[in-house]
Amino acid sequence: MSPIENLTRELGKLPGVGAKTSLRLAYHLVKGPRDNLRRLASALELVADRVHPCPACGNYCDAELCPVCGDPSRDREVICVVEEAYEVGAIERAGRYRGLFHVLGGRLSPLDGIGPDELAIDALVQRLDTAGGRVKEVILATNASVEGEATAVYLEGVLRAYPVRVTRLARGIPVGSDLEYIDGTTIAEALDGRREM
Amino acid sequence: MSPIENLTRELGKLPGVGAKTSLRLAYHLVKGPRDNLRRLASALELVADRVHPCPACGNYCDAELCPVCGDPSRDREVICVVEEAYEVGAIERAGRYRGLFHVLGGRLSPLDGIGPDELAIDALVQRLDTAGGRVKEVILATNASVEGEATAVYLEGVLRAYPVRVTRLARGIPVGSDLEYIDGTTIAEALDGRREM
After folding, report:
1. What Cα–Cα distance (Å) separates residue B13 from each residue in A25, A36, A83, A85, A109?
2. Which residue from A minimizes the CA distance to B11?
3. In this complex, how many residue pairs, one in chain A and one in chain B, have their CB atoms less than 8 Å apart?
4. B134 CA: distance to closest CA in chain A (Å)
5. Which residues in B24-49 are b (16+ Cβ under 10 Å) and which e?
6. Could you tell me which of B4, B10, B11, B44 has the C-alpha nearest to residue B27?
7. Which chain A residues touch B29 with a CB distance below 8 Å?
8. Residue B11 has pLDDT above 90, yes or no
9. Where would you tag: which of A18, A45, A162, B100 has the fewest CB atoms within 10 A of its CB?
């Protein structure tokens, strides 16, 4: 296999990158300056060498703890549970949340063979045990999909044994969108969850 | 910048990879086995270290000459001119062509500041000079786009000074397609180029 074929094969393993795209990417990289190839290669190596899950919350980090867990100003009474590490960034960018996170590493999906044991649910329970009542609220921020919902319901059952408030992100109309294009289930949820102005 | 942000930024430089896709790719890589990261990194390094344009035709290769130019069984009387190196593969996979190639490295596109000097046209002329009449035919296999067509017309003008047959890939109905979905210009070209059965 030539170096280009080899690169094409490796790029083709990325999600959403098929045979044609990987070829196009490989030739784009070959045609560009060598430095671009080397910078991407060392970015990959750096991640391989340095990034690991935060031992506290499961988010990825390159220090002992992730930036959130390591920040003494964060509110340790609230834990926001997300499916995947990249969702931490989505919530952080919103700029509203000051508590901690917990990354499950996926969602319950029996068809894909993902049960409770495949997710970091034991780790969450252990965090609550270790905190000894200092955690007052767990926000379930799993996705609004069928699997995310099932995961939230399962977690709610597990957390019932703990003296914590268990909440779920509000459902409703996304900011900036037209009612016309919103599905009925979302509108129904938005009506149920309506608030005083 | 964290290693993940760094990787996301580098991936975001790939064509067709926006902010969301690069984040998704980065987290996919972080979540997978370290080996996948390292294999992709070394595939990139290998290309950076070893791949260079073939001094004869401009195709990319990792040997002294590209596999086509280095193959003594190829017909040295025919040169097929393509815009980009990855188009060599498309023609090779068709399995019909036994001649050599010449990679222009682009197409004439005045709006993008790409004139004749930016393409390997001098190199093509030099090849014909060096071959001293041994090249009998130049096939213009630039794309069937406006720019590809303009490039072919320009090359035809340049090559008129040489005693070579200058041909262009046939236009017509692609194999396996329905007439219903073919544009009128293509059908007109297919009529013009019709052949005895």
Report:
1. 10, 9, 27, 22, 34
2. A40
3. 135
4. 30
5. bbbbebbeeebebbbbbbbbbbbbbe
6. B4
7. 14, 44, 47
8. yes
9. A18
B34–chain A Cβ distance below 8 A for any pair: yes
pLDDT tens-digit map of A101-147: 999 999 999 999 999 999 999 999 999 999 888 999 999 999 999 99
- Number of other CB atoms surrounding residue A166 within 10 Å: 17
Q: How many whole angstroms separate alpha carbon B82 and alpha carbon B52?
A: 17
Provide the pairing of β-strand A60-61 with A75-82.
unpaired
Instruction: Please tell me the distance from the alpha carbon of residue A35 to that of residue A38, in angstroms, as a whole number.
Output: 5
Most B CBs within 10 A among A1, A4, A25, hence the mutation to make, goes to A4
| DSSP symbols for A144-197 | SSHHHHHHHHHHHHHHTTSSSEEEEPPPSPPTT--GGGS-HHHHHHHHHT----
**Interface contact A45-B48, CB threshold 8 A:** no
Residues in chain A, total: 197
**Cα(B86)–Cα(B107) distance, rounded to whole angstroms?**
14
